[in-house]
Fold G-protein coupled receptors family 1 profile domain-containing protein.
Amino acid sequence: MQENVMLVQVLVAVFFYVNCLMILTFLKKEAFRDDTRYILFAQTLFVDSAFMVLSDLLLMGSFYKYPIHQIPCIIMCTILNVLFVCTPLTLVAMCLERYVAICMPLRHADISTSRTRFRGLLIIWSISSIIPLFTLVAYLAVIPSGALLSYTVCSVELMLGKDWQAQARAISFQVLFLFMIIIIAFTYIKIMIAARGASSENKKLTSKGLRTVILHAVQLLLCIMQFLNPYVEMEAWKVDVMVFANVRYSNFIVFIIAPRCLSPLIYGLRDDKFFVVLRHYALCGLDSLLPAMFSKVKVRPG
């Protein structure tokens, strides 16, 4: 089990480094900071990085049975819940942006303004905070007096002590994710219709948009499956401690790390403009120096 934990640390470190490199690429290029698509992508990178780090801290604390004070534990779990909802909502916003860009190209510039972006980000973070704040208030309402001063092994399940709390949280997430699935399906159908009627010049753009929406749908599906993790792990806990540890480890790899690896692949590697700038900073500018160096090398005949 110790080897599994070390493997998780390596994976988290690698993807955290990649995400930080992409965030640096976004911040260095002004053209990216004025584009709604890249702004949403940067938010996804930031949210996913913070979510991976906090989830990894909870995983390590659970593995080593390290108790911490209840108050920072509750704050950490609440932030983690906000980030958990924020990622799929940002994915939905990215699908809607692709829908506007492909299906309403003449209105895209008017819709995608700085004011619209600010309102959109505000809506995303506001909706992301509703369910976690409800969970926090419900937990504080039923917690025994003096329990906030105690120490505990921190986990998200700590705030779901009562059955009605877990059921209310589950129903809220189910309704929210149902709406998100409907929106993504709507954008996919609209882009697919636009692809059929597009000219040969626009076929490539619409086809790429369809693939992007599909990949976002896969990410959303994995995020939804992650919502079931606490319930699966609780059942595993009743069986055996080692079974619980193995299930939590597998869930962390498949449903936490894997979905957050797709975002760099979708935009960081598939997007030509972003990939060129990313490669430049990843190689510390050597990509522009090497061609010039080789051009000065004289090839001797024979």
